[in-house]
């Protein structure tokens, strides 16, 4: 089984994460940011990843450091997977009422994010919507993955939740074992 444990402690946050890539979508997530917990729960459930995450951050300042550092730690965990014999690429298109999110990913060792998300509100609960793109940038830089996403809709909750569901499904597809593949690179390395 592909199980990883990552701990990160800075002057701003303390994070403990356990990830089972070959899980069934069992999660226990507490970040102190209820909406962030909600969308991470969706990521875990729809990606079939078992995720245990505890984050204590300087929420008295704001939610930025916590969201950023969770992205870093989750990215570090996914970067630990063996790159041979996985599908490498994953994608999803998810509707949620009036919202629709598309998400595609390449676990190819080259961090890059192209994201089309412009929030119509500054907050969902105590979660700052400007941190959506920053979360994916933090994740991509530490997972060393290429991400492209788009989301449309009117309701911010629906837009962000659809995006995280699509993220989970795309990551599930990309990380699936496929023994026919070997190392998927004409360069011979990722």
TrEMBL record:
Catalyzed reaction equations: D-erythro-1-(imidazol-4-yl)glycerol 3-phosphate = 3-(imidazol-4-yl)-2-oxopropyl phosphate + H2O
InterPro entries xrefs: IGPD_sf, ImidazoleglycerolP_deHydtase, ImidazoleglycerP_deHydtase_CS, Ribosomal_Su5_D2-typ_SF
Plastid is among the record's keywords: no
Major localisation: cytoplasm
A cellular-component GO term for this protein: cytoplasm
One of the record's GO molecular function terms: imidazoleglycerol-phosphate dehydratase activity
Catalytic activity, EC: 4.2.1.19
Superkingdom field: Archaea
Record key words, sorted: Amino-acid biosynthesis, Cytoplasm, Histidine biosynthesis, Lyase
Pathway field: Amino-acid biosynthesis; L-histidine biosynthesis; L-histidine from 5-phospho-alpha-D-ribose 1-diphosphate: step 6/9
PANTHER family hit by this protein: IMIDAZOLEGLYCEROL-PHOSPHATE DEHYDRATASE, IMIDAZOLEGLYCEROL-PHOSPHATE DEHYDRATASE HIS7
Protein name in UniProt: Imidazoleglycerol-phosphate dehydratase
